[in-house]
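During the reporting period the student researcher (J.K.) took over the structure-prediction task from the postdoctoral fellow and processed the backlog of single-chain submissions. One of the processed entries is reproduced below for the supervisory committee.
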Amino acid sequence: MRSTLVEYPCSNQLLADARVTRAGDGVLRYSQLDPSLSELLDIAVHRFSSRVAVEEVDGEQVTFAELWAEASRVAGGLKSRGVEIGDRVAIRVAAGVRWMEACLGVILAGGVPVSVGVHLSDGAADFVIADSGSVLVLDGELPHGVPFIDDGAAPDEMAILAYTADSSGEMLGVELSNENVLSAIVGILHSRDYGVEGVRNLLVDNDFKSVRQFVHVLATLVVGGTVVLAGDFWRESVHTVDIVTGRPEDLLEPRLLTLGPAARAGSRSVQWIDCSGSPITAEQESKLLTLFPAARHVIGWGKTETCGAGLILPTESAPTHLGSVGIAFGGMEVALYGPDAPGGFGELLCRGPSVTRRYWNSPQATSTRFTQGWFCTHDTAQIDPDGFVRIVERNVA
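J.K. obtained the following structure tokens:
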């Protein structure tokens, strides 16, 4: 039987965004994006300068103005060490205020941050650093110099180089442009209603190797919120936040499950539990609903190649679409490929403004994973007539 590519338009109007229009290349794109991450963040800094931007539990906290000032000094230090526009700079620092200063410093210097997780093996870290061609590795004291801010980046220039493993375990660098990241941020904010009242988003991850975590950081900062980085202390701090973002296995850490109802009472103040972009089982979902009964639970799907975003399951749709990872949002479109695609079963393909155009330093992988504007996810899926996607077999990347 012949393989066919079949598009599945989303008919759900809850996630419709009038700012998304079809471009000449056939891909849906946002029409009024800021040109770069640095410009978007500069607006937030001036608007929310005195608010706390990043907070470490039992540790340091910095305001938007302080974070920006320190990042610009790091950018100046990078320039004094010879970092040029477009140079990759590896960051191997645990998630925290210093990680944020390092990452934003690279961006303000006109460089491209490459996050190397602190828990990545030395061999894997060495590969990422070498493959990316990083001119510098930030893993100790951050460089400082005369404050510097490069504001000339363009939407199609690479903003982040993120690494992921394919189904064979091979590490691939994913080029994410300013447009990709900015589109993911806008899509996330459109699909949730955080407002600008100063939400507190607790990220349960002490190793920023995932681009999804970085995008959620940026989305929080854009609306003047506080990024709370708790590491192992998140269980004692959950009552102080509005949003908890993380993988299901981290949110369901065994010691939390052994606490009594009184010790978990603070979890009832959490308004959002966001596991979007991470695989979740029915058992995990049930446990999270029990732990956080008053929160809105955000389930979804995404890959590094899509900035960790792509599909979301609206709360009101969950009861009638059990097991689904959601419908496309933020300009994302989905299709199926294979002999059974007309019947709603096959390999999941997607395209949209947050989807990368290519892999770094790997033209062969690019040619096999991108076809006619579509990204071949290697996930096997079912899609119903309303565009709701159920992942049947997931690629490990």
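The committee noted the following: The chain has eleven helices and 23 strands.
J.K. will present the remaining backlog at the next meeting.
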